[in-house]
Specification:
The chain folds into 2 domains: 103 residues, Substrate Binding Domain Of Dnak, Chain:A, Domain 2 (Up-down Bundle), CATH 1.20.1270; 81 residues, no CATH class. The chain has 4 helices and 7 strands, in the order αααβββββαββ. Strands 2, 3, 4, 6 and 7 form a 5-stranded antiparallel β-sheet that branches. A two-stranded antiparallel ribbon has the order 1-5. β2 and β3 form a beta hairpin. α1 packs antiparallel against α2. The protein starts with a helix and ends with a strand. Pfam families: DOCK_N (PF16172). This is DOCK1 protein. It comes from Toxostoma redivivum. GO terms for molecular function: guanyl-nucleotide exchange factor activity; small GTPase binding.
């Protein structure tokens, strides 16, 4: 509602400047005044304010000089015009929604491109970085994991892929775009000893996968 009223006020300010400029021909000036009054009456209607009764030129009718029947007929005409405008706005919105749904339905699939720059996380051992898409409302993952193996030195284990860690989540259909929320989740799994301080060779273990951290960002599709 606030955005609608703001846009109408901006339009009225612009039209007022054109009227006060005195450069418009009489026919354009008359049409612009009608547009201004129509915009004001429409704004009053959506704000549940009183309807101002006007004549054909957009001037407010004086009840002291206008008969009751004339006022009633003018009120009927103004109400009808405002209702037609409301129905037109509603129809346009429905058409936009229908076109958007049809566009989504006609598109076979969508994709999400991900470019991993760096992993800023002090682990001390090798790790696995897994990225995936998650639906928080249904509490389930909706994609496979993109896996990057990270070394204890803070670089990818496959050094040839440095600065080239890219993935594309494909086959995201219109059903996925209609989800209320989709989260991008990054999980970090530590691969190594049971305990980081396990220096005793008799208890030394290796290759164990332990959850280390998780991060996520949530938003609408």
């Amino acid at each position: 509602m606030f955005r609608s009223v703001r846009h109408m006020i901006y339009d009225l300010i612009e039209w007022r400047s054109q009227i006060l400029s005195g450069t418009l021909p009489q026919d354009e000036l008359k049409e612009l005044k009608k547009k201004v009054t129509a915009k004001i009456d429409y704004g009053n209607r959506i704000l549940d304010l009183d309807l101002v009764v006007r004549d054909e030129d957009g001037n407010i009718l004086d009840p002291e000089q206008t008969s009751t029947i004339s006022l009633f007929r003018a009120h009927e005409i103004a109400s009808k015009q405002v209702e037609e405008r409301l129905q037109e706005e509603k129809s346009q919105k429905q058409n936009i929604d229908i076109n958007r749904q049809a566009k989504f339905a006609a598109t076979p699939s969508f994709a999400l491109f991900v470019n991993l720059k760096n992993v800023v996380c002090k682990i001390g051992e090798d790790a696995e970085v897994l990225m995936s898409l998650y639906d928080p409302l249904e509490s389930k993952f909706i994609s496979e994991n993109y896996l990057v193996r990270w070394s204890s030195c803070g670089l990818p284990k496959d050094i040839d892929r440095l600065h080239n860690l890219r993935a594309v989540f494909t086959d995201l259909g219109s059903k996925d775009l209609k989800r209320e929320k989709i989260s991008f989740v990054c999980q970090i799994v530590r691969v190594g000893r049971m305990e980081l301080r396990d220096n005793n060779t008799r208890k030394l273990t290796s290759g164990l996968r332990r959850p280390f951290g998780v991060a996520g960002t949530s938003g609408c599709p």
